[in-house]
Design brief:
By secondary structure, the protein is α/β, with parallel strands linked by helices. The protein folds into two domains: 150 residues, 2-Layer Sandwich (VC0802-like); 178 residues, Rossmann fold (3-Layer(aba) Sandwich). Helices cover 33% and strands 21% of the residues. The protein is built from eleven helices and 14 strands. A seven-stranded mixed sheet has the order 2-3-1-4-7-6-5. The chain has a seven-stranded mixed sheet with strand order 10-9-8-11-12-14-13, with helices on one face. Helix 8 links the parallel strand 9 and strand 10. The protein is elongated. It starts with a strand and ends with a helix. Pfam families: RlmL_1st, THUMP, UPF0020. This is Class I SAM-dependent RNA methyltransferase. Keywords: Methyltransferase, Transferase. GO terms for molecular function: RNA binding; rRNA (guanine-N2-)-methyltransferase activity; rRNA (guanine-N7-)-methyltransferase activity.
Length: 392
């Protein structure tokens, strides 16, 4: 089958996590800022959309060339194989962006791309007018340092829209970021997981989907499903593979709580829509009264913060209470996403590791606290033993 260059986009800071996901699907990767490029066939389009938890969307790279003038952009675009993908009745809007390039007017570049594709389509379909009433094929021209990259979006609505969340709380965490937090924690399904600020339940639900190996895109559709150029049989194959890989016999111990009863109502509805209501414990409870049970568990949470919700003094109080709770859990690890520069102070100890991530446009740190007997500690001790071994 024809090999394609595909691009998975993601929030800044998640490139390595996304690259690992793509490699787990069996594809080699090239990591760039905000995107991971890989080569695969048309089945890879289906698998990537269904499986990638931390990607925003999956693009087909149609071509890449130098474009310092509108003529170069027009001719380079017209030469690409658009009609191999776009049906005669297809709707094909052009989007664009430009950075550090001579062609700095994005609307003008979008117009040139649209005109060039129309001219290409005229030659293929032998018509002067396109109805554009059929499937949607969103084209994008991205200009960087005078290099134009032309893509087609196979996803449509962003991949964070899993299909289980019909209602939202005031400041929801994106599903892609929640999944990234769980993946970065190295949590395993045989360990307890607790989110004391669960809001609409995104972290517990994403964790359960990871624990049961449920492909996050199983309950939704994608733009390319309506394309004649990606056969329906490939989508059927990819979905059947995904259903076969579900491990719903694995017992889960995942708990979420929040002081906001309306948020918990939203979380319960989302868990039901995801088919996970019986696997999650979601309860109205202030963090000061939270008492996670079990050994070697994981606290994974996105506490409220001043820029997002609530009063600053109240937020500081909540963070101190979170620190008090985790201090009573010596065998637990904690992963806390927050923009607060003082979080370690409120927690009462420095984080073992910090990672810069963006929650929307807000710069945050993922503060990572590793339990002495946790998975990270065991891996670290194993590496230390290997380095000091007399056999080396």
């Amino acid at each position: 089958m024809e090999q394609l260059t595909l691009i998975a986009t993601c929030p800044m800071g998640l490139e390595a996590v996304l690259a690992r996901e793509i490699r787990d699907l069996g594809y080699d990767t090239t990591v760039e800022n905000g995107r991971v490029t890989f080569v695969g066939d048309k089945l890879a389009i289906c698998r990537a959309n269904l499986w990638l938890r931390t990607a925003d969307r999956i693009l087909i790279r149609m071509g890449q060339f130098e474009a310092r003038t509108f003529d170069e952009l027009f001719e380079g675009t017209r030469a690409l194989p658009w009609s191999d993908w776009i049906a005669e009745d297809g709707e094909f809007p052009a989007e664009g962006r430009s950075h550090k390039s001579q062609l700095s007017s994005v609307p003008a570049c979008q117009g040139i791309v649209k005109k060039a594709v129309v001219e290409h389509m005229k030659e293929r379909y032998h018509t002067e007018w396109f109805k554009e009433t059929g499937a949607r094929y969103v084209m994008e021209v991205a200009l960087l340092n005078d290099i134009a990259t032309l893509t087609l979006d196979t996803t449509g609505v962003g991949l964070h829209k899993r299909g289980y969340r019909k209602l939202v709380t005031e400041a929801p965490l994106k599903e892609t970021m929640a999944a990234a937090m769980v993946l970065l924690s190295r949590w395993r399904a045989d360990r307890p997981l607790y989110d004391p600020f669960c809001g609409s339940g995104t972290i517990p639900i994403e964790a359960a989907m990871i624990g049961w190996n449920i492909a996050p895109g199983l309950r939704r559709t994608f733009a390319a499903e309506a394309w004649h150029s990606v056969p329906e049989a490939l989508w059927t194959q990819a979905r059947e593979e995904a259903y076969d890989l579900v491990r719903d016999d694995v017992p889960l111990e995942i708990v979420g709580s929040d002081i906001d009863s309306e948020a918990i109502d939203v979380a319960v509805a989302a868990a039901k829509a995801a088919g996970l209501a019986k696997e999650l414990s979601l309860q109205v409870l202030p963090v000061a009264k939270a008492r996670p049970r079990g050994d070697y568990g994981y606290v994974i949470t996105n506490p409220p913060y001043g820029e997002r919700l609530g009063d600053r003094g109240e937020v500081e109080k909540l963070l101190r209470q979170l620190g008090g709770m985790t201090s009573q859990l010596p065998t637990w690890s904690a992963f806390i996403l927050s923009p607060s520069k003082q979080l370690e102070h409120y927690m009462g100890r420095p984080a073992n590791k910090k990672r810069k991530l963006f929650n929307g446009r807000i710069e945050c740190q993922l503060y990572q606290y590793f339990a002495p007997g946790g998975l990270f500690a065991k891996e670290r001790n194993k590496r230390a033993e290997q380095q000091t071994s007399p056999d080396r």
